[in-house]
Design a protein that fits this description.
It contains 16 helices and 23 strands. By secondary structure, the protein is of the alpha+beta class. The strands form six sheets. It has a seven-stranded mixed sheet with strand order 10-11-12-1-13-21-14. This is Peptide ABC transporter substrate-binding protein.
Length: 559
C-alpha cells in the first residue's frame, strides 16, 4: 500500500491549502478551467514503452492492490488530491482546495471546473458523491476485494457505524462536503491513493462496476473493470492480453497540460534480466527496479538510472506466537545487537541506503530525530542469549521476489543468519515463494522470525507504525502476546485522532521512542532508495518516493 501528510493546527489548514493551491495551479494548468487550450497536434509524437514486471489485475483502480496495476491506472485516473511530482507531498488535483470545519470531520472541497471524464461526462460535485457512495456500498465480495477502502475508511455501508466515512453532500456544481466520523491524520491525505480516484458514474453504471463475484481464492470482475473511465491525461486504447501489452493514448480533451507523448505502452516482461536485455536492444525505453548490482553497468551503457528517495523500511519481524522466548525484551534486543547492519547496508543494499533507527523513514512527520541506531555488539548479544538459556529461530525469507527495500532477499538473509549464529542463536532456514506461501505464512504466524518491509502509501506516521502495530489482532508481530500490546495499539489510535499537527507529531515521536527502546516488537533494519532506469534518449521522468511516476511529461528522442 501507499499514503501522506499535511497540515498544521486546524485553524491554519485552510490557509495552507489555499497557498498550496495557487502554486499547484500555476505549475499544472495556466488556464484553470480551459480544457481546450492545447490541442492534440501540439503534443509530441513519440511512444514511451515501459517494461512492466507483471500484468495489471483490473482497469478499475478501486479493486486494485498491486503496483503493476497502479502503474497503468495512474496514467488514466485522478483523485481529488494529488501527489507533487518527485515527493510524497499532497497537492490539489481534481479539487483546487479544501478546508475542514472546527471539528476536523466535515471537509469542504472546491472542485476544478471544466473537467470531463474520458466518455465526455462532466466531472462535478454530483459525480464525486456518486463515486463515494459507489465505493461505500459494496457487496460481500467487493468488500474483500476493495482493500484500500477498508484500509483507510474501514467498514462499508453494511456496517456504517464502524466506518470512518460518514457521507457526501454536493452543495453546488463545484462544491462538495465530505464528512468523516472522527478526525484522523490520514484524511484528506489518503484521498491521493490511486484506489480512491474519481471514475465516470455513467460508465460505472453501464458496466455494472460493483458486481464483483467471489470465485475460489479470487474474484470475477464485471465488464467495467476491463476498461475503466477516468479524467487523466491518457485513455485506454487496448489491453492485449495475448501479446502482453497495455496501450494508452493521449487524452486530447484533458483539462490540464496535454501529454508530451502520443502513446504509452506497457510491455509485460516478468524476468528482470530480460527487461534489461530488451532495454539494451531498445525494444523498451525503461523498466522498474533494476538490480542495484547493474546500476553502474546500465549507466556506463548510456542509460539513466533514476534513483527515488527512500520512503520505505526493511525490518526483521519477530513472532512470540510461535516462540515464547521472543516475549523477552532482552532476547529481542540481543537479536538486534547481533546483526551488523552497517556492514549489511554497505555490502548488500544500493548506494544511498541507510541504517534505520525506527520503523519509518526520516521524511515522515513523527520521525524521532533523537533516536540512535542500536549498536552492533555481538558479545553482548551472545551473553544475553546464553542467559536466556539459548534460542532457536525458525527464520524465514522469501524467494522469487525483488522488493524496493529488499533487492536480494537470499543474500540479505544469509548475512543476517550468519550474524545470528555467531551470537549463539540456532537458525533453522525457511524459505517460500513470495506469492507461493511466504506472505500467507507471515499472516498465519507460521514463522518465528521473517524478513519483510513496507513502502509508504502516503506521508503519515499512521501509515507506518499505525499499520504495523495499530491493531491488537490484525498484525504480524503477535502483539496480543506482549504485555505492552494493548497500550501500544490504544496509544496509536489516540495519536491518529489528534487534530493539532504539532501535538500529533510530538505524540508520534514519543511512540517511536517507546517502540524502539521499551517495546521492540520488530527490528527496523534499513531504508533503501529504489530506482528505475530509462534509455539515454528519454527525458522527463521524475522519480517518485512512492513509486508513483506519471508519464505524461516524458518524451523519447525529443519527439
Amino acid at each position: 500500500m501507499t499514503f501522506k501528510r499535511k497540515a498544521t493546527p486546524v485553524a491554519v489548514l485552510a490557509v495552507a491549502a489555499l497557498a498550496l493551491t495557487a502554486c499547484a495551479q500555476s505549475d499544472r494548468d495556466d488556464s484553470g478551467s480551459d480544457t481546450g487550450s492545447t490541442s492534440g497536434s501540439d503534443g509530441g509524437t513519440s511512444t514511451f514503452t515501459f517494461g512492466a514486471a507483471g500484468a495489471p489485475k483490473v482497469m478499475d483502480p478501486f479493486y486494485a492492490t498491486d503496483g503493476e496495476t497502479f502503474r497503468v491506472t495512474r496514467q488514466m485516473f485522478e483523485g481529488l488530491v494529488g501527489i507533487k511530482a518527485g515527493s510524497a507531498e499532497i497537492e490539489p488535483e481534481l479539487a483546487e482546495k479544501w478546508e475542514p470545519d472546527a471539528s476536523g470531520t466535515n471537509w469542504t472541497f472546491t472542485l476544478r471546473e471544466g473537467v470531463k471524464f474520458h466518455d465526455g461526462e462532466p466531472f462535478n460535485a454530483d459525480a464525486v458523491c456518486k463515486n463515494f457512495e459507489r465505493m461505500f456500498d459494496q457487496n460481500p465480495a467487493g468488500q474483500v476485494a476493495a482493500e484500500y477502502w477498508s484500509g483507510t475508511f474501514g467498514a462499508f455501508k453494511a456496517k456504517a457505524a464502524e466506518s470512518l466515512y460518514k457521507g457526501c453532500e454536493a452543495k453546488d456544481e463545484k462544491t462538495v462536503v465530505l464528512s468523516v466520523t472522527r478526525p484522523t491524520s490520514g484524511f484528506p491525505v489518503f484521498l491521493s491513493l490511486d484506489s480512491l480516484s474519481m471514475q465516470s458514474p455513467k460508465a460505472m453504471d453501464a458496466g455494472k462496476a460493483n458486481e464483483v463475484v467471489a470465485q475460489g481464492e479470487g474474484f470475477i470482475y464485471p465488464a467495467y473493470s476491463k476498461a475503466g473511465v477516468g479524467t487523466g491525461p491518457y485513455k485506454l486504447e487496448k489491453y492485449d492480453e495475448a501479446n502482453k501489452t497495455v496501450s494508452l493514448v493521449r487524452n486530447d480533451d484533458y483539462w490540464g497540460e496535454k501529454a508530451k507523448n502520443a502513446k504509452v505502452v506497457f510491455k509485460i516482461i516478468p524476468d528482470e534480466s530480460t527487461r534489461r536485455q530488451e532495454l539494451e536492444a531498445k525494444s523498451i525505453n525503461g523498466y522498474d527496479l533494476p538490480n542495484p548490482a547493474d546500476w553502474k553497468g546500465l549507466e556506463t551503457a548510456g542509460n539513466k538510472v533514476e534513483i527515488r528517495p527512500a520512503f520505505n523500511v526493511f525490518y526483521l519481524g519477530l513472532n512470540p506466537t510461535k516462540n515464547a522466548k521472543l516475549t523477552d525484551l532482552k532476547v529481542r534486543k540481543a537479536i538486534y545487537q547481533a546483526i551488523n547492519r552497517d556492514e549489511l547496508v554497505k555490502t548488500q543494499l544500493p548506494e544511498g541506503a541507510k541504517v534505520a533507527t525506527q520503523m519509518m523513514p526520516d521524511t515522515v512527520s513523527g520521525y524521532n530525530k533523537s533516536l540512535e541506531a542500536e549498536k552492533y555488539d555481538p558479545a553482548a548479544a551472545k551473553a544475553a542469549i546464553a542467559a536466556a538459556g539459548g534460542l532457536t529461530l525458525n527464520f524465514a525469507y522469501p524467494s522469487e521476489v525483488t522488493r524496493p527495500y529488499m533487492p536480494n532477499p537470499q543474500k540479505l538473509y544469509q548475512a543476517m543468519a550468519g550474524d545470528l549464529e555467531a551470537a549463539g542463536i540456532k537458525v533453522n532456514v525457511v524459505t517460500k515463494p513470495w506469492n507461493g506461501g511466504y506472505l500467507d505464512g507471515v499472516d498465519a504466524n507460521a514463522f518465528d522470525a521473517f524478513l519483510l518491509g513496507w513502502t509508504g502509501d502516503y506521508d503519515s506516521p499512521h501509515n507506518f507504525i499505525g499499520t504495523f502495530f495499530g491493531s491488537l489482532d490484525a498484525n504480524n508481530f503477535g502483539l496480543a502476546k506482549h504485555s505492552f500490546g494493548t497500550k501500544l495499539a490504544g496509544d496509536l489510535a489516540k495519536a491518529d485522532a489528534i487534530v493539532d499537527e504539532a501535538e500529533r507529531t510530538k505524540a508520534y515521536e514519543e511512540l517511536n521512542r517507546q517502540i524502539q527502546e521499551e517495546y521492540l516488537p520488530a527490528l527496523a533494519i534499513s531504508h533503501s532508495p529504489p530506482a528505475l532506469v530509462v534509455g539515454e534518449d528519454v527525458e522527463g521522468v521524475v522519480p517518485s518516493p512512492l513509486t508513483a511516476e506519471e508519464f505524461s511529461g516524458v518524451t523519447v528522442g525529443g519527439k
